[in-house]
Design a protein that fits this description.
The protein is an alpha+beta fold and 416 residues long. The chain folds into two domains: 243 residues, BirA Bifunctional Protein, domain 2 (2-Layer Sandwich); 90 residues, Anticodon-binding domain (Rossmann fold, 3-Layer(aba) Sandwich), CATH 3.40.50.800. Helix content is 39%, strand content 21%. The protein is built from 15 helices and 16 strands. The protein has an eight-stranded mixed beta sheet with strand order 1-5-6-11-10-9-7-8. Strands 13-12-14-15-16 form a five-stranded mixed beta sheet, with helices on both faces. A three-stranded antiparallel beta sheet has the order 2-4-3. Strand 3 and strand 4 form a beta hairpin. Helix 5 runs parallel beside helix 9. The longest helix has 20 residues. The protein is elongated. The site of one zinc ion has 8 residues, from helix 6 and helix 9.
Length: 416
């Protein structure tokens, strides 16, 4: 038997309603804030990610699904959403539309992750991008939407951590300080860290190797190296968050694993297990980096699998599967034809209704209705068709009522 590839999962009809519920809540929140949904290709030219996400990041160095297509192009399945969305923003000339451009997406992402640690290689992310504003107000709007999502989904124990990782100006001084800190131990770092030392020492800070992590203890923090503009920006973000009573803590260890971040970065972390559910930040350099005008932007992304897992923990019985309203059981060909028409009329009224399409016995039909948790069953034979009356059985109480075989009357009996 052919099985699904490692790190993928199937979402079956009996659980998909939970996804739909979460997606619906999040969509309402984001669209009420003026965000339009965008859908971009699953694969892009590899260069988009190596330039956008950063050549020295874990994502690009270790985790991408990259292959050559039949035309000899290097293609990569998107490992994250922002680069593709920004590429689309540039390519479609969105800069000429009302600014800021506010976008959201829900898309599958692909990373060659360590499956042993429960990570998926195909996973879904919901993300937002606000493009064309350098104001701290945009940072706070995006953060507050993140906070709103957890509130609306009734997920407690979520902590907001923020940090500033500065701009290219302050980062230069910081990287020097970081190199000075790392240099005495450089030989003991892993090979990946060694290659990052010259090009991008900040990436050494998110190495997952235990020995590297230990040596990183006590490294200088970027907050001490912020330039005037970055410092002021960060102060304004903090004070507006306080004014809005959105609790946060400053966590100078947040560097985010993608190179495009600047200034504000943030993570919503579950206090239950310490894992990040939603992460994001400002990326003022990305749009220029991949060929657009110099345009500031800010956004976030969250893993939907992770969000669902934590949602279910606190909301066991909040949402119910959408079950069948009515099953129409039939005896004989005449009744079957009659029922087929009736089902169509009822579906037009918005009723979730099924009838037999397997030419099965009455007993088998009842069994199916029972398994599919039909709320009501209506049984139609030759006699019922003649009289235009049948019995409608409530499957929970066993109670029966007579109904005319007209869609409107059945509808009112089902929902009165
Ligand atoms: Zn700066
Ligand atoms: Zn390392």
């Amino acid at each position: 038997m052919i099985q699904k590839p490692k790190g993928t999962r199937d979402i079956l009809p009996d659980e998909v309603y939970k996804w739909q519920y979460i997606e619906g809540v999040v969509r309402d929140i984001l669209e009420n804030a003026g965000m339009g949904e965008i859908r971009v290709p699953v694969f892009e030219h590899t260069e988009l990610f190596s330039r956008g996400v950063g050549e020295t990041t874990d994502v690009v160095q270790k985790e991408m699904y990259t292959f050559e297509d039949k035309g000899g192009r290097s293609i990569t399945l998107r490992p994250e959403g922002t680069a593709g969305v920004v590429r689309s923003y540039i390519e479609n000339g969105m800069a000429s539309q009302a600014t800021p451009i506010k976008l959201w997406y829900e898309m599958p992402m692909y990373r060659y992750e360590n499956v042993q640690k429960g990570r998926l290689r195909e996973f879904r992310q919901i993300g937002t991008e606000v493009i064309g504003t350098e104001s701290y107000l945009a940072d706070v709007e995006v953060i507050s939407l993140g906070a709103k999502i957890f509130e609306a989904l009734n997920i407690p124990n979520i902590k907001l951590n923020i940090n500033s990782i500065g701009c290219p100006v302050c980062r230069q001084k910081y990287q020097e300080a970081l190199r000075d800190f790392i240099r005495p131990n450089l030989e003991k770092y892993c090979d990946t860290c060694k290659t990052r030392f010259e090009k991008n020492p900040m990436r050494i800070l998110d190495c997952k190797e235990q020995k590297c992590k230990e040596m990183n203890q006590g490294a200088p923090i970027i907050l001490d190296y912020l330039c005037e503009e970055c410092r002021e920006h960060f102060e304004k973000v903090k004070s507006l968050l306080m004014n809005l009573e959105i609790p946060f803590e400053i966590d100078s260890s947040i560097v985010r694993g993608l190179d495009y971040y600047t200034k504000t970065v943030f993570e919503f972390v579950s206090e239950d297990d310490g894992l990040t559910v939603l992460g994001g930040g400002r990326y003022d350099g990305l749009i220029k980096e991949i060929g657009g005008q110099d345009t500031p932007a800010v956004g976030f992304a969250m893993g939907v699998e992770r969000l669902l897992e934590i949602f279910e923990k606190y909301n066991k019985d909040v949402i119910e599967d959408y079950n069948m309203d009515l099953y129409i059981a039939t005896i004989g060909e005449e009744a079957d034809l009659f029922a087929t028409r009736l089902v169509m009329n009822l579906r037009d009224e918005g009723v979730f209704v099924e009838k037999d399409i397997c030419s099965r016995s009455l007993k088998a039909q009842f069994k199916y209705a029972d398994k599919k948790k039909a709320r009501f069953v209506l049984t139609i034979g030759e006699d019922e068709v003649k009289k235009n009356y049948a019995k409608l059985k409530d499957m929970k109480t066993g109670e029966e009522v007579e109904t005319k075989l007209k869609a409107e009357e059945i509808f009112s009996k089902l929902f009165e």
